[in-house]
Design brief:
Length: 505
């Protein structure tokens, strides 16, 4: 393996990426971090609920972004030489990572401990969450004078831990670590004897039991007690009151203002650069914040060439990839198709009457290309036999083209030709990966969007170890390489694509 990237440059981008990860414990925070990067470079926010044609807010040389649900974001630039129907160079990635999420009713106690009910999200390596310093982050809806406003929460201190059982009580711990994910994967947050609210019986106990039943309808069969009603309506009754008070204090609001939230647990230990020669990034959420950061940085750095660009350059970062992408804002939703359709209907070059119902959508899609970027499996030195003998990507040896005959990845030969030419222009090394025939193969947003839109697609990503662990390992030098590859893609796509013939007259 040869590392030719300048160490100083690689470290600079790696440190920026580490900061990005540390500020982005949830998809909501990841989108917020991307927005801050874009706003700092003059990108303009547009809103789906507005009429883009009437507002006249899209134009050549423009830089824009649009969000959906606060956890997915699409950003794009319009070339100065763009003509209606020209293609879009798209880099797609996902903002979510496997984790533990707080249940809708999380309040519980056991053996004098305050515990928190959590739900597994995605295919996490669950045992890596034991004996870690955990904290809480997410989105909280707050009542501000009758308006319900989302606020980002990130409590930057250790709050919870899932302790393992001492080896003295389980002699098989080193040979067979098995556990029930409902009863054993439960974090402790405190002790009832030391909790003021628990001692006073607040937020659950005799005080609640004394509440009288209240009639909810004339039909007696539909009556419910105030306690039953409050269990849905009042967030304080569903969670430990001390936790609610901590959240309120962090957001500088009253507990009574909190209407609801979506909170998850994250590893409080920071992402960092490590290794004997600073060649590794030890971090949570490399999958797939690496691609989100590299794509955003590449889009920003390619704007210098915007006056000469003939197409649209776009990043599309989705929530919910880890659970199948089927949501209103996942890759299998209408988000990307909606944005492309609206771009195809907006007159960006003045070639047709503003009132005409001209639609360049199919022309635009047929000229477009998606790089579906998701982390890849680098070869593990202790488990080398788990990899296909001839396709063994190395960490710090460049982005990995992912291929699967059964279309778990969307890569095909025209796409490989394209990415090779894109990489050649900036001297970025590429690697190849296929999974063993006796091993299952994961998938990405690539096949979903390719089949949904008829969009030409290639799957690739940076190599890493310990994918879906609470702590993953990636390469310091690979961050800048992926960014350089995306930047070259944005700047050279129209020229290279026109030379790769497929379904042309």
């Amino acid at each position: 393996m040869s590392v030719t990237t300048d160490h100083t440059v690689a470290i600079k981008y790696a440190r920026d990426f580490v900061d990005f990860v540390n500020e982005s414990p949830t998809p909501y925070h990841a989108v917020d971090s991307v927005k801050k990067m874009l706003l700092n470079e003059g990108f303009q926010e547009i809103v789906e609920r507005n009429n883009w044609s009437k507002s006249h807010q899209l134009a050549k040389n423009g830089k824009y972004y649009v969000t959906r649900n606060g956890s997915s974001i699409i950003a794009f630039t319009v070339g100065g030489k763009y003509q209606n129907g020209n293609g879009v160079a798209i880099v797609g990635a996902h903002t979510d990572s496997p984790c533990l999420r707080i249940k809708p009713i999380s309040k519980r106690t056991s053996e004098g401990f305050i515990t928190v009910g959590v739900e597994q999200y995605g295919g996490l390596i669950a045992h890596t969450w034991f004996d870690r310093d955990l904290s809480i982050a997410g989105r909280v809806y707050v009542n501000e004078d009758g308006k319900y406003v989302p606020k980002l929460l990130k409590i930057d201190k250790p709050l919870l831990r899932i302790p393992t059982l001492a080896i003295h009580l389980d002699r098989s711990a080193n040979t067979k670590f098995e556990f029930n994910k409902e009863t054993k994967l439960v974090p402790i947050a405190g002790q009832t004897a030391l909790d003021k609210n628990e001692k006073e019986g607040e937020g659950g106990g005799d005080a609640d039991k004394e509440k009288k039943s209240s009639k909810c309808a004339d039909d007696p069969a539909l009556q419910m007690s105030a306690e039953q009603f409050e269990s849905v309506q009042n967030v304080i009754s569903r969670h430990n009151k001390s936790l609610i008070q901590l959240i309120a204090k962090e957001l500088q609001v009253e507990p009574s203002q909190i209407e609801d939230f979506e909170l998850l647990l994250f590893d409080h230990q920071k992402s960092t650069i490590g290794g004997l020669n600073e060649e590794f990034i030890f971090s949570p959420r490399l999958d797939n914040l690496t691609s989100c950061f590299a794509a955003t940085q590449a889009l920003i750095e390619s704007v210098d060439q915007l006056p000469n660009e003939q197409g649209i350059q776009m990043i599309s970062l989705f929530d919910h990839e880890e659970i199948g992408s089927r949501s209103s804002h996942g890759a299998d939703s209408s988000f990307l198709p909606d944005i492309l359709q609206r771009l195809a209907k907006v007159d960006l070059d003045g070639t047709y009457n503003k009132g005409a119902a001209v639609d360049f959508f199919h022309e635009l899609v047929s000229k477009s290309f998606l790089l579906s970027s998701d982390q890849a499996h680098g070869v593990h030195p202790n488990y080398a036999d788990a990899y296909e003998p001839k396709n063994r990507p190395q960490v710090n040896a460049g982005p990995v083209i992912k291929i699967n005959a059964n279309q778990r990845y969307a890569t095909n030969s025209p796409g490989v030709v394209l990415i090779k030419k894109v990489a050649d222009r900036v001297k970025v090394p590429l690697q190849l990966f296929v999974v063993r025939n006796d091993s299952p193969c994961g998938s990405t947003i690539g096949p979903l969007l390719s089949s949904k839109l008829g969009l030409r697609t290639l799957d690739l990503g940076n190599p890493q170890l310990s994918m879906h662990s609470i702590r993953e390992t990636g390469g310091t030098y690979d961050v800048v390489r992926l960014m350089d590859l995306f930047k070259s893609f944005f700047e050279s796509y129209v020229d290279i694509e026109s030379k790769i013939l497929c379904d042309h007259l």
